[in-house]
Task: structure prediction
Amino acid sequence: GESVGLHLPTLSVQEGDNSIINCAYSNSASDYFIWYKQESGKGPQFIIDIRSNMDKRQGQRVTVLLNKTVKHLSLQIAATQPGDSAVYFCAETPNDYKLSFGAGTTVTVRA
Amino acid sequence: DAGITQSPRHKVTETGTPVTLRCHQTENHRYMYWYRQDPGHGLRLIHYSYGVKDTDKGEVSDGYSVSRSKTEDFLLTLESATSSQTSVYFCAITDPGANVLTFGAGSRLTVL
Result:
């Protein structure tokens, strides 16, 4: 069946470096994508979103890129900080308010 | 967590016992969801509600039931808990047109 997935389950990054987290999706009907961050013991928190009519969106220190041709989504975090250590999920919705989540990437920031 | 309260936050129970998890919101959002989170699976949708007494099944609904008698409360019931239902359960809310879900802090359930 169609699903959303992340390429790598873990990512280790040096503090100050940029992080890139990747996600592949297969539901061509999805028109909205979201990145969530989940810290230990907490619920997922919204980071940034993007609609299918866009290919890039920037927030504070984060950028989401969408490549609809290859059904690929990425989250870039600039100047990664210790507080960025968390599990990151991408999610998609085919416009019915039911998000479908990937398995998540655990980001560990090295001091 | 944006006006969402889950209770209990932690529960240990035995196989075969009934369990009810509660999600309470103060945001007056119409849509409410229950997800479970397991290692390697991300978050999977159990049940959802688009309004009072309007509920439907998600992708992993077997063994679970829900009720929504008031806008602010969404209950998840395990009629007879099994070890495979050991998980962390998250409630989420949103409104029509908003798309982004806001999640509660989670309820960790252990079934022995």
